[in-house]
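quick q for whoever's on today - can somebody do inverse folding on this one?? i tried earlier but teh output was garbage lol. C-alpha cells:
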C-alpha cells in the first residue's frame, strides 16, 4: 500500500491549488465540474471555493441554465486578483530602453511600456518600478531579465558594468516586500519558446542566441525544466574552446564562416546534451542559413544525434513569454505530495 506523505495543511494547500488550476484552465466551471476535473470530493471543492470567494480570488459567474431543478452556480478565476511585473533592458538604434510589462494571473497583459534610460543601474529600475506599483498596486511579484549570470546572489557577469557585484534580487525583495526573480535573457527565451511551441515535458531544447556585439549564449531546457547547472554557468557556450572569433567584423561578414562556426557549436552541444531541438536567433542567421546549417549538422552527426534546427523569428516574444512564465510561477504554490512505498 502506498502512503501519501504530508500533513493536513500541506494537503489543503495542494487541493486549493488544484482548484485554482482547474478554474484557470476551464475559464468557468461549476462545483461538480471542478470536482470531476480535480478528483476531489464536491464537499472539499465547495469548502475551497468559499475560501477563495472570501478573498475575491474566485468570483461567482452566471447560473447554469436550469433543466427543471435548482440551477448550478458557476465560478470563474479572478485574473486581476494580483499582477506581476517584468522588466528587461534592450538596445536599439544606439539607445537603451527598459521594457516593462504588467500581467494578470491569467497571463493577460495589462500594461506595456518602453522607457529610455541613460544607464542600466539599480536607480533606473527603482524609478520605473515605483511608478508602476503606484499605478498598479495589485503587483505582487517581479521578474528582472538581464544578460549575464549571478552567483551567491550577486551579479558576476553582465553587459552593464554598474550592476556587477550587486545583489539585485535581495535588494528588490527587501525594498518591495514581494517575490523577485532575476533571469538571464536567453534562459528566459528558451522557457518562452517552449511555452509558445508547447514543447513536451520529455523533450530537450537548446536555444542559441547570437547578439550583435557580444559572444553567443545558450538556454537549456530539459524534461520540462530550465537547466542552469550547479553555479548558473550552464549555457555559457562562448567558453567552449572552438577558437571562433565571435563579433569580429571579418568573421561576421563571411556567411560561410558563420554557418560553419554555428555547426561546430551545435555539434559540441549535441555531444553533451543531445537535444531534440536547437533554436537559433540573431542577425547572423535567417531561415535560409538555418536550412544550410541543419543540412551540415546531418552530415556531421550520427542519425540518432541530429536535432531539429529551427530559426526563431522573434527573440523578444520568446524572452517576454519566458519572463512572464517564470514570474507567474513565483505566485503558484510549489508544494507537491510525494509517494513512499
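ok took a stab at it. sequence:
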Amino acid at each position: 500500500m502506498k502512503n501519501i506523505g504530508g500533513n493536513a495543511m500541506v494537503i489543503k494547500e495542494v487541493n486549493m491549488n488544484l482548484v485554482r488550476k482547474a478554474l484557470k484552465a476551464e475559464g468557468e466551471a461549476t462545483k461538480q465540474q471542478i470536482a470531476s476535473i480535480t478528483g476531489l470530493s464536491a464537499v472539499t471543492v465547495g469548502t475551497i471555493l468559499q475560501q477563495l470567494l472570501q478573498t475575491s480570488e474566485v468570483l461567482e459567474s452566471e447560473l447554469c441554465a436550469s433543466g427543471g431543478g435548482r440551477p448550478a452556480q458557476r465560478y470563474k478565476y479572478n485574473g486581476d486578483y494580483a499582477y506581476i511585473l517584468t522588466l528587461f533592458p534592450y538596445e536599439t538604434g544606439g539607445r537603451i530602453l527598459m521594457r516593462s510589462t504588467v500581467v494578470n494571473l491569467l497571463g493577460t497583459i495589462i500594461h506595456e511600456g518602453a522607457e529610455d534610460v541613460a544607464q542600466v543601474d539599480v536607480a533606473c529600475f527603482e524609478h520605473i518600478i515605483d511608478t508602476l506599483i503606484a499605478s498598479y498596486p495589485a503587483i505582487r511579484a517581479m521578474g528582472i531579465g538581464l544578460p549575464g549570470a549571478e552567483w551567491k546572489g550577486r551579479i558576476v557577469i553582465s553587459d552593464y558594468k554598474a550592476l556587477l557585484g550587486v545583489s539585485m534580487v535581495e535588494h528588490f525583495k527587501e525594498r518591495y516586500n514581494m517575490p523577485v526573480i532575476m533571469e538571464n535573457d536567453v534562459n528566459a527565451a528558451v522557457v518562452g519558446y517552449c511555452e509558445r511551441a508547447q514543447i513536451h515535458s520529455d523533450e530537450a531544447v537548446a536555444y542559441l542566441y547570437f547578439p550583435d556585439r557580444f559572444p553567443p549564449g545558450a538556454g537549456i531546457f530539459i524534461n520540462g525544466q530550465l537547466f542552469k547547472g550547479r553555479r548558473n554557468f550552464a549555457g555559457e557556450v562562448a567558453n567552449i574552446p572552438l577558437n571562433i572569433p565571435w563579433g569580429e567584423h571579418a568573421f561576421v561578414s563571411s556567411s560561410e564562416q558563420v554557418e560553419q562556426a554555428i555547426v561546430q557549436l551545435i555539434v559540441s552541444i549535441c555531444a553533451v546534451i543531445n537535444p531534440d531541438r536547437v533554436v537559433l536567433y540573431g542577425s547572423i542567421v535567417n531561415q535560409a542559413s538555418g536550412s544550410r546549417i541543419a543540412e551540415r549538422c546531418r552530415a556531421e552527426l550520427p542519425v540518432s544525434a541530429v536535432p531539429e534546427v529551427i530559426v526563431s523569428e522573434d527573440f523578444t516574444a520568446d524572452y517576454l513569454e519566458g519572463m512572464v512564465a517564470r514570474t507567474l510561477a513565483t505566485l503558484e504554490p510549489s508544494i507537491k505530495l510525494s509517494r513512499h512505498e
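fwiw Residues 8-26 form the longest helix (19 residues). also Residues 97 and 116 are 4 Å apart (CA to CA). so keep that in mind when u check it
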